[in-house]
Amino acid sequence: MRLIDVNGEQLGVMSRDKALSIAQERGTDLVEVAPNASPPVCRLMDYGKFLYEAQKREREARKSQAKVEIKEIRLRPKISEHDLAYRLRDARKFLERGAKVKVRLRFRGREVTHPEVALKLMERVAQELSDVSVVEKRASREGMTMLMILAPNR
């Protein structure tokens, strides 16, 4: 097996027993890094420290990830003008804060037989919020609901 030192310096090709004795001598672990290579490559390292640093890097990466929040507004096909204005105001506030908005329109009873009314309402919502958002997912029917997802403008 080929042995690599803690500093990345190659110590040469040697038997497994000799590599283990060198690792014990130096107080490090012998870690196989390329088992499929010919000869296999092993490295002298403090494996516990290596795992700790890997976890630390992972935590840092998770911290810097942007979490996208999805807020929802619920509408009905027969919503009044005032109620719609109120919902649009909330949606605009969510979008300005950087959250995505899921617009859910629920049908009740026979309202489902007139999807064109709901589609017209969804288009109106998208139009009203077009200055602060883009339509990520067009309005589509799923059973007794119609969904549309709006993402904030960048």
Give a structural overview.
The protein has helices spanning 16-26, 47-64, 81-96, 115-128, and strands at residues 2-4, 10-13, 29-34, 41-45, 70-75, 100-106, 133-142, 145-152. By secondary structure, it is α/β, with parallel strands linked by helices. The chain folds into two domains: 2-64, Roll (Ubiquitin-like (UB roll)), CATH 3.10.20; 70-152, Translation initiation factor 3 (IF-3), C-terminal domain (Translation Initiation Factor IF3, 2-Layer Sandwich). Strands 2-1-4-3 form a four-stranded mixed β-sheet. The protein has a four-stranded mixed β-sheet with strand order 5-6-8-7, covered by helices on one side. β3 (29-34) and β4 (41-45) form a beta hairpin.
Main beta sheet: 4 strands, mixed
Summarize model confidence as the mean pLDDT: 91
- What distance separates the N and C termini? 53 Å
Strand order, largest beta sheet: 2-1-4-3
| Portion in helices | 25-40%
Give the overall shape, derived from the CA principal axes: rod-shaped
Would you report the number of β strands? 8
Kindly summarize this structure in a few lines.
Helix content is 38%, strand content 32%.
Task: List the main descriptive attributes of the protein structure presented here.
2 domains, 4 helices, 38% helix, four-stranded mixed beta sheet, alpha/beta, Translation Initiation Factor IF3, rod-shaped, 8 strands, Ubiquitin-like (UB roll), 154 residues
